[in-house]
Amino acid sequence: MQVTALIIFIVVAMVGSAMLMRKRKGLRIPPFIIRSHGVFAILGVLLLLIGVFESWLGGVDNSWTWVSAALLSGVVAGGYLLFGKLLKGRRKPISILYLHGIFACISISTLLYALAV
Hints:
Elements: H1 2-24, H2 31-57, H3 63-87, H4 94-116
């Protein structure tokens, strides 16, 4: 379940990078892609939390998986706030989008480390 969540997060990160490149070029990002980016990120967090709880109940406890689950939940919550701003029609500073992406990459790397340990 955790590996599936990792794969989902990597795909979501690639889509996010493509959206950021389109934003930098001044191109329009279709709302469907923005929504699917968020929906799949939420799905990844849910799968990760289920996997972490399953391994915890099974007696295999890795504290790095808990750290990565907390970090990725924070990334998704931050993305939700950005998405909420988008729905209100406000412009988002590009620096906030970069910070969201950097934080997501750090969180995904933490999950990758947790699965390797």
